[in-house]
Description:
This protein is α/β, with parallel strands linked by helices. The protein has two domains: 8-179, 3-Layer(aba) Sandwich (Rossmann fold); 189-325, N-(1-d-carboxylethyl)-l-norvaline Dehydrogenase, domain 2. 49% of the residues lie in helices and 13% in strands. It has an eight-stranded mixed sheet, with helices on both faces. Helix 8 (181-203) runs parallel beside helix 10. The N and C termini lie far apart (46 Å). Substrate binds at residues 108, 255-256.
Amino acid sequence: MSFEHSEVAVLGAGSWGTALALLLAQDGGVVRLWDRTPEQIAALIAARENKRYLPGHPLPANLQPTESLSEALLGASCVVVAVPSAAVDMVLGRATLTPSADIVLASKGLDPETLELPADVALRCAPGHPVIALSGPNLAREVAAGVPTAAVAASDDAAAARRIAERFNRPTFRTYVSDDRTGVELGGAVKNVLAIAGGVADGLGYGDNTKAALMTRGLGEMARLGVALGGKRETFYGLAGVGDLMATAASRLSRNWRVGHGLGQGKTLAAILAELGQVAEGVPTAQAVARLAEKLSLSLPVCCTVADLLAGRISPHDGVARLTENRSAKTE
């Protein structure tokens, strides 16, 4: 299937949106990259490079930055949403889409107010459009550099999932399909929370044993929550679950890991976020997951401990102690 003359809109010119725009531009078709910050678009146009979020990767001629949302969406058969999850509602609420446009959700989080996944927001804001979640172990800098990786395109619409998988497939970007959109999106959201926990353990100087235990138990929490919300357990043991968790919780490129690492080293959350200069989705998502745990009466101790740590209710040392204190023996 050829998409040579198709037009694609990527909404969000952070590191992830820019990396996906670069990937999609490889087939030679027109890709328009929009951002809600006019200064960011002006900088992209002037430098032909995202010097702020993804330096070292020049924009090809067919990748066209624009500050006009309507211009970005004009004729687009594929709309990739790569804004922070809390902004999906605002962006799609303003969007006028081509009637047959596919909406691809590349945002990874939960709305902190409504507790909706990005695809749920898209279905509400743009009813009638195919909605596909794209997730997996995909660090933006590595995708832009052509490091081999894999992702999952998930939708209730099997044809739409396959269509997007074909659109994104590249020699270094293998895209699989899934019918478990909820599970794929939830894996992408919760792994950010768990990556913060992994960063805290590293920042405190604990060893691999501690981190492996945290991530393994956290993965169980991810699956528990996912099944409660209608996802499939096996999804969390694939690319969008354990795969994404392995990449995000281990890499120094991960913003969420860096948040946790900074907290473990004694830095304040405000100072860490100011240093990052970008959204770390795990911060608001942790509070959303904690609220879901209470709402659904689920035991999610790792995620809820991260939420308490981010809210300043406990210290990093107290958080680890809470999770490792002596308890009665349980079946794993």
